[in-house]
Specification:
By secondary structure, this protein is an alpha/beta fold. The protein has helices at residues 6-10, 59-62, 80-89, 106-118, 131-140, 156-162, 175-185, 199-208, 220-232; strands at 43-45, 48-50, 52-55, 69-72, 94-97, 122-125, 145-149, 166-169, 191-194, 212-215. Helix 3 packs parallel to helix 4 (106-118) and helix 7 runs parallel beside helix 8 (199-208).
């Protein structure tokens, strides 16, 4: 008798889809996010599925990268002028930082309202943000509130109860373990996480349960350095 794998007969392997692509000349050297991020499930926000978020406020980078969204957080007091500049440059959704660390209280709420009015898709608050502030944000804006989680001992249940719509896990080398813990305790939580600098660490974070990955691109200075080496013929 011929030994045939019945599963193969009944369910032939699915052929890989052909995806036509146009690149052009001027944008052919744009930054591409690691392809492995496509393995994440994504988070659907206002009908748009987001798997990758580029971590930058550099408008030149934003105009020349194929990420699904921008996460525009920076180590200064959030300013509407910066939010406006990023939103003007971006062709994709913007998750706008509104404070929660150095900037706190009513100012965070006001900045969030301003970001929503300018067209931000979501607002991001830093790890020190109080649960009361999160509750206040949910009362006054109608876009997702993304709450950063940076420590293993964070009371995630309290964050979610306060109204956090999406968790942004950024815990350095503890990111994947923290994502895994959150996913095991809260199977339906929406999780964005930093994926690190290699495909191995990105995949580890996705396998731990992250729905979307934050990607840090090379700086403009680093990219220019590569171009100048080419121009000089080094």
């Amino acid at each position: 008798m011929c030994n045939v794998n019945q599963d193969r007969v009944d369910r032939p392997e699915k052929a890989e889809k052909f995806v036509p692509e146009y690149r052009g000349n001027l944008r052919d050297h744009m930054i591409e996010i690691p392809r492995c991020i496509a393995q994440a499930s994504g988070i659907r926000v206002f009908g748009r599925r987001i798997k990758s978020l580029v971590f930058t406020t550099d408008v030149a980078i934003i105009r020349n990268i194929n990420a699904d969204a921008v996460i525009a957080v920076y180590p200064f007091t959030p300013q509407p002028a910066i939010t406006h500049a990023v939103l003007t440059a971006a062709e994709m959704p913007v998750f706008s930082g509104v404070g929660g660390g150095i900037t706190s209280g009513a100012r965070v709420v006001n900045l969030a309202m301003d970001a929503e009015a300018l067209g931000a898709t979501a607002v991001v608050v830093n790890a020190p943000t109080s649960n009361e502030c999160i509750r206040r944000l949910k009362e006054v804006i109608d876009i997702p509130v993304v709450v950063t989680v940076a420590r293993m001992d964070t009371d995630v249940e309290a964050r979610l109860a306060a109204g956090a719509d999406i968790l942004n896990v950024s815990a350095a080398e503890n990111t994947a373990p923290l994502v895994r813990r959150i996913r095991s305790e809260f199977p339906q939580a929406a999780i964005i996480a930093t994926g690190g600098s290699t495909e191995e660490t990105i995949l580890r974070t996705i396998e731990a349960g992250a729905n979307a990955i934050t990607y840090t691109p090379p700086t403009s200075a680093a990219l220019f350095r590569e171009l100048m080496v080419k121009y000089r013929g080094d």
